[in-house]
Amino acid sequence: MSATSTSRQLALFDEVTSSLKEWQRPASRPNVAAPPAHVPPSRTATIGSANRAEDRRAQVITHQWEGTVQSVSGDSFAAVLRSLSEQPGTSEKVADIPVEDVSADDRELLSEGAVFYWTVGQSVSLRGTMERFSSIRFRRLPLWSRKDLKQVADDGAELYNMFGDPGAEGQASSR
Amino acid sequence: MTPAPKDKPAADELEVSLFGPGVGESVVVHVGAGKWMVVDSCIDADTASPPALTYLNEIGVDVAKDVDVLVVSHWHDDHTAGMTTLFKACHRARLVCSAAMNSQEFFTLVAASTKIHLLAGRGSGIDEMAALFGELRARRTKSGGRVVAPTYALANTIVHRSDSLDGVPACVVEALSPSSASLSRASLSVVRLMEPKKALPSPGPNELSVALHVSFGETEAVLAADLENGSSDALGWRAVFADDRNRGKGATLLKVAHHGSKGADHAPLFGGMLANVQLAGVTPFNSCGLPTTADIARLKARGAPVYHTSPQKPPKVRLDRGTEKALGNTTIRERRGKMGHVRFRCTSGGAPRVDLFGAAAEV
To answer: What phi and psi values does residue A5 have, to the nearest 5 degrees?
Structure first.
């Protein structure tokens, strides 16, 4: 590729990148909520190994959801979705999602009640090649601390003393 | 759309009213002489209130005095949403919960609900239970310790009894489940809390639900909650069928189990307790696509007309073109449909009649 053509490509890439950044700014899209801090920020510049200018891709997220798994059945799972790209308070949605859309690293986290982030968008290379992507990543949360466990056990015992009925027939046994 | 009902049942009339918008269900029962029972709760998105409360207020019931019993069949969030609001309004109501909740493990889970990671302030079924017990605790404090614990129901617990009086038949509401064997399977041990903080630990099998048999003079009803078949004769509907104490029980009216799912349809029951059902009502569960077309066909094949509180599938969500292409064949729909109300009324031994309101329709 000639120096002139490379610089033209780079100029085109910069133009695309800045317009994508403009698209992403909340002010220009008043109905789009900024994703929460714990969600990987959208990347609008170089991604991947970019030793060669022509390998760089600009990426824009078109929609994000936070989801909770309702049930897992064979090769798909049912989930309730809450949009992170729309105003808070937007109604919940449901979808049947193929398990194959979940990254291999996260498959072990797929279970009823698990929480995930679903990110959908487009990436475009310097050459103008567009690819769509759909990424599902499950949330990884910290383990309970000993202090937390003791606190909830004590609180639970107090509630049980107040409202449990140890003398009831068939009382569920403590383990 | 049919306007909201304004008429109360007659004193000697059993009523079973079923509400369901596609997320959750609530059953309102007139047990005679102007007294009421409510089983489970959900939220009407249009009013942001429990439909049971809206309905009872609209037909002129004094909920503070005349709701005798509130039943929490199990603590999945689609059956508990708004229960605390109901409990606050129904001052005299006695609370009845599944016996699966009568354990230190369950109360530890309730205590843990504030520490379980809840995203964007969103609650869960256990969150509502925490609020409910918080309200019970507040009442206990105000009354100087006089407020009693809930009644914990398992198979053959009498949840409500009223004697015959002034032409109004006697009414007995008896729990059909959970069985004693299923209580030991309740997956509520503290050990599970050692797992990473999830939004919602699995609440345990639906076989812990409180299904109810209502006897109103010569008319009977079964309110099947989310009870499923069970993996042995000691569990679920298999246990109900196997229990000799249930021989002789029947039903004219049926609230179908677990949104019509195949796993909650125990065929032998339809040769026994449910052989003479004349009217059946079902609520949808849109998150899992229940009832399916096959479920509806199976229910209709039993012979009785089936009424669905919200049969119209919620609309598909339209997204921008790029997102829809990236999603491929995956369809996203609204979770909540339109609220529907199926109402059955029947005098003792009489022919039952049905009224449909909102989105409800015969299927």
So the answer is: -65, -35
Alpha carbons B304 and B300: distance in angstroms, whole number: 6
- Please determine, for residue B265, whether its predicted confidence score (pLDDT) is greater than 60: yes
Flag if B154 and A170 touch (Cβ within 8 Å): yes
Distance from CA of B275 to the nearest CA of A (A): 30
SS3 (DSSP) at B83: helix
Nearest CA among A171, A174, A148 for reference residue B193: A148
Inter-axis angle of helices A146-163 and B125-142, to 10 degrees? 50
> How would you classify the pairing of strands B219-223 and B361-362?
unpaired
Q: How far apart are the first and last CA of chain B?
A: 17
* SS3 category, B159: strand
Would the CB atoms of A173 and B327 count as touching at under 8 Å?
Answer: no
Give Cβ neighbours of residue B301 (< 8 Å, ≥ 6 apart).
none
Contact predicate B336/B313, CB 8 Å: no
b/e per residue B28-64 (b: at least 16 CB within 10 A): bbbbbbebbbbbbbbbbbeeebbbbbbbbeebebebe
Contact A70, B288 (CB under 8 A): yes
- How many Å apart are CA A35 and CA A65, to the nearest integer? 9
DSSP 8-state secondary structure symbol assigned to residue B12:
T
Task: Check: CB of residue B76 under 8 Å from CB of residue B83.
Answer: no
- Give per-residue pLDDT as tens, A4-53: 444 444 454 455 444 444 434 333 333 333 344 334 434 333 334 445 55
ipTM, two decimals: 0.82
- Distances B183 to A169, A171, B98, B206, B234 between C-alpha atoms, Å: 11, 8, 10, 11, 11
Residues 6+ apart with CB under 8 A from B82: B41, B42, B43, B49, B50, B53, B128
Identity of the residue in B184, B190, B287 whose CB atom sits nearest the CB atom of A94:
B287
**DSSP-derived secondary structure letter, B100:** G
Mean pLDDT value of segment B59-88? 93
